[in-house]
Amino acid sequence: MSEVPSSRKTRRPDRAAFIIAPALIAAAAVIWWDVARLATTSTYAPIGPATVPHWVAIGLVILGVWSGFEAWRGDFPKREAVAIGPVVWLVAGLAAQMLLLRPAGFSVATGMLFALTACGFGRRKLWATIPVGIVLSFIVWVIFAKLLQLSLPAGPLEHLFF
């Protein structure tokens, strides 16, 4: 007969996971409710616009229930301390994109998101990452806005070329 390791005996239920589990289930409920407003599958195709969101909602419910069981058992590994610096860089990148999207356009706003995210991951050379991010974002804008004819916000840079 095998014995339970002593670290297993002292583990307590994970409170953070008890918060995450219902949050996942709530997100699934919101997705399911939103998808219920879409048209159901058509008569000629079994897959419609609601198919993938339904599967995502089902997956979130499964993950929520699983997280709840794992939280109760205390099987989550011990988490490392949160490094605040990278989180601040990532949030700053998202804020910069939201603030710059209309006035500066997709390429500049997403380029700033790219550069500030790179800073969050340890690349501190903004003078290099901002231009690289803008160029990559401009390429993405050209593919989506011009080739695929999707609507992305255009700014001065995009109007300079198109």
UniProtKB/TrEMBL annotation:
Query: Boundaries of each DUF1468 domain copy?
Result: 20-153
This protein's UniProt keywords:
Membrane, Transmembrane, Transmembrane helix
Q: Does the keyword Zinc apply?
A: no
Family annotation (InterPro entries): DUF1468
Segments passing through the bilayer = 16-33, 53-69, 81-100, 106-123, 130-152
Protein name as catalogued: Putative tricarboxylic transport membrane protein
This protein's species is: Shinella fusca
